[in-house]
Amino acid sequence: MFQRSTSSVARGAAAAALALALCPYARAGEHQICYRDLTLPKEPVAVSAHCRSDTPGVSCAIVPPKGAFVKLSSAGTADRSVTYRAPSDAAVYRFEFRFSNGVQRHCTVEMGAPTDHYHPQGQLVGYTTDSSGRAMTGVWKVGWLDVDPEVRGGEPQCDLPGDFVITGGGAVGAETPNGAMLTRAFANHNVWNSWSQQLLSLDIYSHTGYGIGLKIEGLLQGDLRAARQRFVEVDSGRQSRATAIVPAGWQVVGGEAYASSGVPLNHQFLTADAPVVRVTSGCLEFDPSCRPVFAIDGWTAASKEHLVSADGFLLTGAYALPVELTIEGSRYSVAPCVSASTSAVAQHPSVAVAGSPGECALTGIGAEVDWERHGSAGNLLWKLLPRPDIAGVEASSKDHTIPSPATLTAYAIGIKLVPVPFD
């Protein structure tokens, strides 16, 4: 389902609130994930399962379903990883995870869930789980090495496991020697696509795309895919902004951005790929224990030409879930978790943001450059990196050829499933 929004968004209040001190926040928790592993060409029915705890000294054990499972590889105790050859006669396998602190979790693999076999399944980077134990997200990556300088850009396509649903992602181009800046980070079905582009240079560099996928234990992949909706908005011009606002009853979990000015050379570069946030509970600078509370109204993207005149097309998309889900007969509210931080003014600003590991599963990341108040030529995103180890994000931008300092704000978005009491 596609919906469009023409509403304008007041960003001044949010920007002012983000200037307040944002304190680090962490919560110890247990994490697990399982998926059909298509990275082993000689093992068509391989299944991988992982578990870990944020608490030092807590280990975990993975118990496969009953049946003729053959262990192909295993590693770790605190951060446990096991790959099995699964029997080929079942469509669903349910793993059990036993943590040494007494916590028990489950994760189900749907072997027959549709996947895109035309693109390689990405390599798992890391994973997060919410406090309910039901919401699980993984970050998968695919990279291009030695991007062809004659094309001046790279677009790896990362296929996620079929029983996960894309909720967001990012990409990393290059900062040096001249830079390769981001132009696109978006989903096409269950494939995460990203593109970086050089400008007035012919360097060889590497580009990596990162897709974030969500699985909810107790909810079939087809039901989750139907529940997740995408709301889009478009704009065009030499300097563009598109903002998609989601209607009431939906919870934003991530987003995407797509800028283009033609093929093969794209001279529209992203300066924003970020959530539209609203502060519902702010903080005073002298209160280090305070953690601001945000609501997410949508997703915004901005792009601009740089040095080379280029009219362009810009699309932004907000991924959203209903604010309430029914899972195995029980009702759960989908509660958002947003962490944000703003860098100092710099020509190459960079910022890392920790989310709420153990409380919320990381579902989306974003960043926005504020270059107009500090420079004139423009400052462009080149890194938007999901950090599942901290349920957060690392973002960087840069000026190009012409000095143009800026600040950079990065966002980590997650969800937690909260049981709804019976009426």
| CATH architectural label | Sandwich
Q: Strand pairing plus helix content: what structural class?
A: mainly beta
Order of helices and strands: HEEEEEEEEEEEEEEEHEEEEEEEEEEEEE
CATH superfamily: Proprotein convertase subtilisin/kexin type 9
Low-confidence stretches: 1-26
Cα(first) to Cα(last) distance is 31 Å
What amount of the residues lies in strands? over 45%
The CATH top-level class label: Mainly Beta
How are strands sequenced across the largest beta sheet? Answer: 8-9-15-12-26-27-24
Number of strands: 28
How many structural domains in the coordinates? 1
Q: What is the overall silhouette?
A: globular
Round the mean pLDDT to the nearest integer and report it: 87
Number of helices: 2
- Sheet of most strands: 7 strands, antiparallel
CATH fold assignment: Jelly Rolls
Rg from C-alpha positions? 21 Å
Helix % is under 10%
